[in-house]
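>> received
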Amino acid sequence: MTDTRPKTLFLYVQNLLGIGHLRRAAAVAQAAVADGFEVHFVSGGMPVPHLDIGGAILHQLPPVRAVDSLFKVLADENGREIDDAWRAARRDTLLALFEEIRPDIVFTELFPFGRRQMRFELLPLLDRAKAADWQPKIVSSMRDILVTKPRPDRNREIVETVDRYYDMVLVHGDEAVISLADTFPMYDELTPPVRYTGYVLNPIDIVGNEAGDGTGEIVVSAGGGAVGGDIMRAVAQLRPALPFADRTWRFVTGPHMPDEAAREIETLAGPGVIVERSRPDLAAIISRAFLSISQAGYNTLAEVLTAGTASVVIPYEGGVETEQRVRADLLAKRGRLAVVPEDALTHDALAQAMQQAVAGREVGVSGIDLDGAAGTARILSQLLEPA
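>> returned
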């Protein structure tokens, strides 16, 4: 008897601080649905309004978040630090969901290259998937650049986990821009194949330059906003004396910026400046802008590259993060944007970067693979094809 059940993808994603991982996973979910998958989108972070996962089925686990940029302490939706009983209950919820869905592919976003805090539920999930009688494929995915691991034993742990459980590793980037080998020192010891998907964009984000909000503006944004307060405050204070001060300026703080910080930015920005908490169509606004000033997160830079918008980036370098600076510097070498280090954010440095970005602005994209959502779906379909 022929199995008429659709190919099924169990996509696990855990956002702890910002929304970048969630948005990237949502784009993959949309593309996989379009490719014929039944997608179960299993989200473990705080819910994000307006998240478009296409026709995927959302399964919201009891949410957890990091209390700060060090990621050492995790709290539930009420701000209470999670304990072993909470972990056990969520683990059991996740395992029951897996048994109910019986997916063809288990897809863990970032783990085991990150999200080590979630081993309490992900290692049992992987054990269950490995032992399942229907033999699902197991896939890990990650962004283009890994945060540097200071301890060699952690890299060894990653390799052992990948080799024990995984059938494939997907890198949501372009090997011509940066290879996983450049940021993961034990790359050569990975046994499963590593495939590059291209940079992942949400399809709705790729918008033309028709008139609308953002047209001719200076747009200042900070992704989800959880760690963007200091940079946005500094830009708001410097704005009156910066180039192009006579243009319309729009600050989009991000939905996760603390209320007090957002109010302070609104006060500093002054009259005539637009300050908004969140815009689901931020990518479209940036695509129409005269100039974008932002951090150097994965999603923001992919959108800027697609639109060809002149761009100044101020990479976030707080906490344990290193990836934004690495990504920004690599793309700056390609002439795609101007970089101002966070610790060098002065009037003169920002003014010079703004002039440089506008003078060198390009329209369209050259030589960088930005079709990563569809690329991911194609690779996952190929993984299920008979050998």
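>> The domain at 205-359 is CATH 3.40.50.2000 (Rossmann fold).
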